[in-house]
Amino acid sequence: MNYANVSILMSVYYKEDARYFKESLESVIQQTMIPRQIVIVRDGNLTKSLDNVLDNFIETYGYLIEISVIQLQQQKGLGIALNFGLQSCKYDLVARMDSDDHAMENRFEKQIKYLGTHPDIKVLGGQIQEFVNQWNQPFRLRNVPTSPISILKFSRYRNPLNHMTVMFDKRFILDVLDGYHDVPGFEDYELWLRVLKADQSALGNLADILVAARVSNLQERRGGLNYIRQNYLARQTFLRNDLITFKDFVVTVTAGILVSLTPSKLRAAIYKYILRKDYME
């Protein structure tokens, strides 16, 4: 068995699908380099089916990997939940994982090897393939830039990392940046902007596909007044903390309003042909 000194950080809440949660957990175990620890934050009480998946996972794989379960009595939101989980991560390298995605079998091995030869990189992401039903039947990619200057330019308007692919230096994230902040819907994006502000050379992306990401209701989640409000408040936080310029704020808030108010079919086309168009350096 080939192990990696890595802690996996995952948060789960009651609205998740138990089938997807099970697949996500098992993809961690099927790695070419198995992480030594997985930290799972129960963000509030879960459904019985989610609890059963977690209990079965512990019973089946508890001898292979240390499984740390953190219980939050009330749902706190992703940023707060991840900060609680970070405190229980034992290893210097922490890999984020979503509770409904599928990690490619060599994801952790590729990231560990790259970080070992690039000590300046403190946060490393990669590419994703998006799917609806079967992880190995993708219908499109979300490519993000890999060169430092391209990442910086991209970050002004859009998240420069696919958050579910990220592996980072725990001490850098906690000690230098004070962990995740409570920015609903934009917790990871706000953190990466702070990384870039602290050290532009600390953030990188591999050109490899690291995760198959489930996006069955992406357009529905990113439409309507609630998303407009979340986007506005997040960009306001970015501007207040000098993470973006006023021009960036106006452009992204306006674009967010226009896209969110379009009919769902048109919004899906925008994501498919514009926002999910392969990124070229």
From TrEMBL:
Origin: domain of life: Bacteria
EC numbers, comma separated: 2.4.-.-
UniProt keyword annotations, A-Z: Glycosyltransferase, Transferase
Entry-linked InterPro entries: Glyco_trans_2-like (IPR001173), Glycosyltransf_2 (IPR050834), Nucleotide-diphossugar_trans (IPR029044)
Gene3D superfamilies xrefs: Spore Coat Polysaccharide Biosynthesis Protein SpsA, Chain A
Domain Glycosyltransferase 2-like: start-end pairs: 8-148
An annotated Gene Ontology molecular function: glycosyltransferase activity
Enzyme's top EC category: transferase
Family that this chain belongs to: Belongs to the glycosyltransferase 2 family.
Protein name as it appears in the record: Glycosyltransferase
Organism: Lactiplantibacillus songbeiensis
